[in-house]
Amino acid sequence: MPSTTVTVDGFGVPVGVAGPEKGSVVAMLGAAQHAPAAYDAVCQRLHTASLRTVVVGPDPRLTAKSVVGILDALDVKWALLVGDRIGGELAWELAATRLDRFIGLVVIDRGHPRVADMAGVIRDEHCPPVEMNTTALVSTAAARAVAKASQRYVYGDYRLVEMLGRRNAAESTAQLAAEIVLRTSNW
Questions:
Q1: Whole-angstrom distance, CA of residue 86 vs CA of residue 90
Q2: Cα–Cα distance between 162 and 140 in angstroms, integer?
Q3: Phi/psi of residue 11, each to 5°?
Q4: Where residue 185 falls among pLDDT bands split at 50, 70, 90?
Q5: Cα separations (Å) of 135 from 69, 88, 103, 167?
Q6: Has residue 168 got a pLDDT over 70?
Q7: Which of 135, 130, 136, 128 minimizes the C-alpha distance to 155?
Q8: pLDDT-based confidence at 166, cuts 50/70/90?
Q9: Which UniProt keywords apply (predicted)?
Q10: Is the pTM of this model over 0.85?
């Protein structure tokens, strides 16, 4: 996938943009140490489904504001939001606070910020509920418990899905792509 660097808030972020020009947009926030290219197989399947992909590489400096800045720089007005692990933490925050930009949420192994995570940490006890359709993919029993507890903070359709394969996005490409397509078709 072609990668570019988008400068936002004074720092450059690697961003992969591909797929049909006129397709609905899927904005993916990657897991730590996963460059945008790590999601190429998932993106190829999404492109086949006529979806455009914007994959934002992980960076600890990313905030909700900077992600919106990246989407603005790419002229993306609406997107389905996908967050993989650490990217899922930011995705929950964006989905809870930016209803004007996102049509739905798909997260992998992360729960709502008001729910204690797998280490027992509540990231944001004041985070608003998410008012959009949400799918949580989980790879472990602990992640499942966090996702199940997150359901009370989702005001919309909520799906909890066990990941198959070797329990990560790279090994569950078809399943992740299918869940993303399902969420875009519900809009």
A1: 7
A2: 8
A3: -135, 155
A4: confident
A5: 25, 11, 12, 16
A6: no
A7: 130
A8: low
A9: Hydrolase
A10: yes
Q: What is the mean pLDDT of residues 122-129?
A: 96
- pLDDT tens-place string over residues 84-108: 999 999 999 999 999 999 999 999 9
Tell me the C-alpha distance between 165 and 155, whole Å: 30
Distances, alpha carbon 56 to alpha carbons 41, 70, 131, 178, in Å: 15, 8, 23, 20
pLDDT in tens, 53-69: 999 988 899 999 999 99
In the numeric block, the tokens 């027992």 are attached to: 120
